[in-house]
């Protein structure tokens, strides 16, 4: 066999070996790909069947926390957006750009002391800010995207609402009872608003009781306050006062168990957090003049500056000052009714109050004082019916719109359901 033949046989053998190696390599690659995708297929099937759980990314302000280094902070007294950003190396030029572009989204001048903010820093470059977040309120926040092009938007945290119940018995005051029951003290204000036309909350008595069904709002497990109150039962002076929230003609209001509106033409009293220091009397000893004479009103003792509210819609028909009588006073004629109310001894009038001005129920009209003949700060409140003074505490104010005949059946079902739930509340 010559050299040429040997070379040709060697070449054929080499090609065969190379081909075999390539074939084996490709077979291994094919097997790897098949095995990889088969694994993915199996994992997806297990996830689909719930046997394997894929961890959810941890989000803060809808941003994945693991992708950033998050640096929290709080606005200090005297600190503004410029101070906060410059402390992290942001240039004044950039701060000016942020402030100007933020105008339509959030006025940076309204940043509040103790509100939280967060820097989302780049993990690889610790000096680079990716996002700046400022909490406007427990729910609202503004996002400053400081990456390539400045983008600003507002957003809200998810609110979780829970339906709750509570009850209590008055020992000293409604406010103190709320604290004793570890309830939000704002309950007192909300209940006062609901019953403003039917219960004098300045005259609550020891032993008065209440039950309430309400909603409480939470953000990330932290309570941010009381929401709607759906139903209440208040026992005052041995009498039951019910309130049920119900929508009629696209308007939500409160009605009693008979379907009568709790809202009347007049508030029960023209100011909050006071005590009655003198009642309507045909013969009262005057503390300044030291003589007996009629007192045609109710005196509500309260600190100077306590807001005084209009008890109903109407027009101011008189306003002035009586140095030997009521001091700063004003009178309101209530719409087309025969009622006129008078407010005396005011320290000053509210802004915009003048003769001829129309006011709405609960509008601020002045502040408690002791002008005129007065021995201490109080409001002398009077009511006239067809020109004759009547006792404000015994006044029967006209009733506002109640449940209509067509809605009564639906309201009754709604009321009965809530009454059953109220009855189930313990500690009453």
**Residue share in β-strands:** 35-45%
Structural class: alpha+beta
CATH architecture of the largest domain: Distorted Sandwich
- The overall number of domains is 3
- Mean pLDDT, to the nearest integer, reads 85
Low-confidence residue ranges: none
Number of strands: 24
What level of helicity do the residues show?
A: 10-25%
CATH uppermost class of the largest domain:
Mainly Beta
Q: What global shape is seen?
A: elongated
Rg from alpha-carbon coordinates: 36 Å
The CATH superfamily of the largest domain turns out to be Glucose Permease (Domain IIA)
What is the compact description of this entry?
This protein has six helices and 24 strands. The protein has 428 residues and is an alpha+beta fold.
Strand and helix layout:
Elements: H1 3-49, E1 59-60, E2 63-64, E3 68-74, H2 81-86, H3 92-102, E4 116-122, E5 129-135, E6 140-145, E7 151-156, E8 160-169, H4 174-180, H5 186-194, E9 209-219, E10 222-236, E11 239-248, E12 251-255, E13 275-278, E14 281-285, E15 292-295, E16 298-301, E17 307-309, E18 314-322, E19 327-333, E20 339-349, E21 358-359, E22 364-368, E23 378-385, E24 388-390, H6 408-424
Antiparallel strand pairs: 1-2, 3-4, 4-5, 5-6, 6-7, 8-9, 9-10, 10-11, 11-12, 13-16, 14-15, 16-23, 17-22, 18-19, 18-21, 19-20, 20-22, 20-23, 23-24
Could you explain the architecture of this structure?
This protein has 428 residues and is α+β, with helices and mostly antiparallel strands. The chain folds into three domains: 59-156, Nuclear Transport Factor 2, Chain: A (Roll), CATH 3.10.450; 160-255, Nuclear Transport Factor 2, Chain: A (Roll), CATH 3.10.450; 275-394, Glucose Permease (Domain IIA), CATH 2.70.70.10. 23% of the residues lie in helices and 36% in strands. The longest helix has 47 residues, at 3-49. Strands 13, 16, 17, 18, 19, 20, 21, 22, 23 and 24 form a ten-stranded antiparallel β-sheet that branches. β5 (129-135) and β6 (140-145) form a beta hairpin.
